[in-house]
Design goal:
about 260 residues; alpha+beta; Arc Repressor Mutant, subunit A; 5-stranded antiparallel sheet; 9 helices; 7 strands; DNA-binding transcription factor activity; HTH_MetabolicPath_Reg; transcription; DNA-binding; DNA binding
């Protein structure tokens, strides 16, 4: 037999799905809880401010207390704690390394990750590194959102002298980089192969602040090129896009 706590949680979950509320009798049938017990639990939940009863329909509805508690919880958590479930989910889907990059001072620093590869080759660098924008998938995703003035200024700062320290496909000049940026814009996300490191491929999607439209960060998938092939990258693109949207939907609810 379910405890009253279990029953209360079931009622909350049921009412979350009912915008117009639900009658006591219907809740009793749907949740297989006797009407007498249902009435006692609903009365207690009403007294605690979690639900109220519509005066016209007599349906029970959720108050804003649950939403308020959720927002308070999110605002008290760190950025990595809040987004980690989304990174874990994408890592599970891709079976590769997933990283969250935060854009600050027109640079990208990797602040969170989830490793989806369970065996075999693993690409798993330390978090906290600042990305070299011209050679990274997250950098391409970010640069592809900028206007010409901002793009030129940031690329001049990054320079191409560092290219020799990265993979063989790292852009050596502005022409090569602009070609990669054009492809990223057309595709909707950045892709690299043997660019940041030899034998490594990656894909990244920008995360935009929905209120300001400004770039907030990036989410990326990276792994050995033998697994993260062009075909596999195309297969994972929808999941990458969805993760970016999920993160964007709650970035205004957290403290950074």
């Amino acid at each position: 037999m379910l405890s009253n706590t279990d029953r209360s949680l079931l009622i909350l979950e049921a009412l979350l799905k009912e915008v117009d509320g639900c009658a006591l009798s219907q809740l009793s049938v749907d949740l297989d809880i006797p009407k007498s017990a249902m009435h006692r639990i609903l009365t207690a939940m009403k007294d605690m401010g979690y639900i109220y009863q519509d005066e016209i329909t007599q349906h029970y509805k959720l108050t804003l207390k649950i939403a308020s508690m959720g927002l308070s919880f999110l605002s008290s958590r760190s950025i990595t704690e809040t987004f980690q479930p989304y990174l874990d989910e994408l890592a599970e889907t891709s079976s590769e390394l997933v990283r969250l990059g935060l854009i600050e001072d027109e640079k990208i620093i990797w602040i969170g990750k989830a490793q989806g590869a369970k065996s075999g080759l693993k690409y798993d660098p330390d978090s906290g590194n600042v990305a070299y924008l011209p050679a990274s998938a997250c950098g391409l995703a970010y640069l592809s959102t900028l206007d010409q003035n901002d793009f030129s200024r940031i690329v001049e700062r990054e320079g191409f002298d560092k290219a020799k320290n990265f993979g063989p496909n790292s852009p050596k000049d502005l022409t090569e980089l602009e070609h990669m940026i054009k492809a990223s814009r057309e595709r909707g996300y950045g892709v690299i192969s043997d660019t940041y490191e030899l034998g490594m491929s990656a894909m990244a999607k920008i995360i935009l602040n929905p209120q300001t439209g400004e770039p907030f960060g990036t989410v990326s998938i990276a792994g050995p090129s033998v697994r993260l092939s062009p075909k596999r990258i195309e297969e994972l693109a929808p999941a990458l896009m969805v993760t970016s949207e999920k993160i964007a939907s709650i970035i205004n609810l957290i403290h950074i």
